[in-house]
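Colleagues,

For the teaching module next term, I've prepared a clean inverse folding example: a structure given as tokens, and then the sequence designed for it. I'd like students to try predicting residues themselves before seeing the answer, so please don't circulate the second half yet.
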């Protein structure tokens, strides 16, 4: 049996992690996988998470099974963070998932169960694992233009032009904020125009919200999602807690599904069914940590302050890199670095230029020239800027 298996192409982002670790050079710079790092290159446990974890350790009395669809308190806390106070609870179904990736997968599964003929529309480019999961599922998808490589900003006209091809019942996958891999995001007006188009087509928006709090702020980063949720009758949202709570390995995510109140019980039951068929109960630990942090006022204030510091640090690094590139290139063609939001920017280098920077300068970025801004610090910003110019970007 096993000799029937074919080798799978390695995931590019995860393979890069391995290559970076294996590189013996001391001056190496990791701008690959989307993990936050402080100025010392460490990914710390956030203080509020640490306290919540200690409290859990002291008070937890059982490890028996918990909710199949997840914990209702976690769902309520997540819904309020993503959709805002006063979210329509009677229309909302929630599923705790294995990270944000699990939420994406379950969202695709739900869409396919409800409509086997659906096509998923995906931004070009997108997080490579979106396409990988869709391919693995045999789920049909189409790409819509998103990024203008020349200006390194959203090519909104091309995007809207492509989305004219959306059919009733199709899924339109959008990045809620901090677009991965480009860092270029829709304005609120553009979100409004996308909502109009999706509504007119009778399609269903699905929002991947993996970086809430990393762009312009917790509330600001949810603005597009909230606009869509307030306008469309059916919406899927895949929210990740990996980055904003720094609990990557706890695998904590939440799929939220808005529909009408009449169909909510069946939708909620279908979500629980999807967990049961896939892995039964979702991980509990991360749900509990997030619930504690979001609902305890002291922990929440501490977490929000730390998240703000993380966000502010990334914005400072963006500005420093943009300034340095302005100086070295004697032009404003890299100003987009300061305008992008979130962890990533696509710098616009060719695969050869990316390889040159890796070989010559020990700088690791994804082959499409996506760089993780959080992998930089004040010392490495000038080194990266020089490497970018030297490579001829
Ligand atoms: C990334 O894009 O680097 C992160 O979302 C990590 C991953 O799983 O790919």
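(Answer key — instructors only)
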């Amino acid at each position: 049996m096993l000799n029937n298996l074919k080798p799978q192409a390695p995931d590019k982002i995860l393979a890069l992690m391995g290559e970076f670790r294996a590189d013996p050079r001391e001056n190496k710079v990791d701008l690959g996988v989307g993990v936050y790092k402080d100025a010392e290159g460490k990914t710390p446990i956030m203080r509020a998470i640490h306290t919540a974890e200690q409290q859990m350790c002291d008070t937890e009395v059982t490890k028996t099974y918990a909710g199949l669809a997840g914990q209702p308190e976690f769902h309520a806390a997540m819904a309020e963070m993503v959709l805002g106070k006063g979210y329509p609870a009677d229309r909302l179904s929630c599923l705790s998932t294995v990270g944000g990736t699990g939420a994406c997968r379950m969202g695709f599964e739900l869409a396919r169960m409800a409509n086997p003929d659906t096509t998923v529309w995906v931004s070009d480019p997108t997080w490579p694992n979106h396409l990988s999961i869709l391919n693995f599922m045999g789920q049909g998808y189409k790409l819509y233009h998103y990024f203008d490589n020349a200006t390194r900003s959203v090519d909104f006209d091309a995007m809207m032009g492509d989305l004219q091809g959306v059919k009733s019942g199709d899924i339109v996958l959008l990045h809620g904020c901090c677009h991965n891999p480009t860092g270029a995001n829709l304005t609120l007006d553009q979100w409004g125009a996308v909502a109009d188009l999706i509504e007119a087509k009778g399609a269903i928006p699905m929002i991947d919200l993996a970086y809430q709090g990393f762009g312009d702020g917790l509330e600001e980063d949810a603005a597009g999602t909230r606009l869509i949720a307030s306008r469309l009758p059916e919406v899927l949202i895949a929210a990740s807690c990996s980055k904003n709570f720094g609990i990557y390995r706890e695998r904590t995510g939440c799929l939220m599904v808005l529909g009408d109140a009449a169909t909510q019980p069946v939708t909620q039951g279908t979500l629980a069914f999807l967990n049961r068929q896939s892995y039964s109960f979702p991980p509990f630990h991360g749900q509990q940590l997030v619930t504690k942090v979001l609902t305890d006022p002291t922990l929440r204030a501490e977490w929000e302050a730390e998240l703000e510091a993380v966000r502010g640090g990334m914005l400072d690094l963006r500005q420093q890199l943009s300034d340095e590139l302005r100086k070295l290139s004697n032009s404003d063609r890299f100003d987009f670095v300061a305008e992008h939001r979130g962890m990533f920017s696509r710098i616009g280098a060719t695969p050869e230029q990316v390889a040159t920077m890796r070989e010559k300068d020990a700088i690791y970025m994804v082959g499409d020239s996506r760089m993780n801004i959080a992998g930089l610090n004040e010392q490495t910003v000038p080194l990266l800027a020089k490497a970018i110019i030297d490579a001829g970007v």
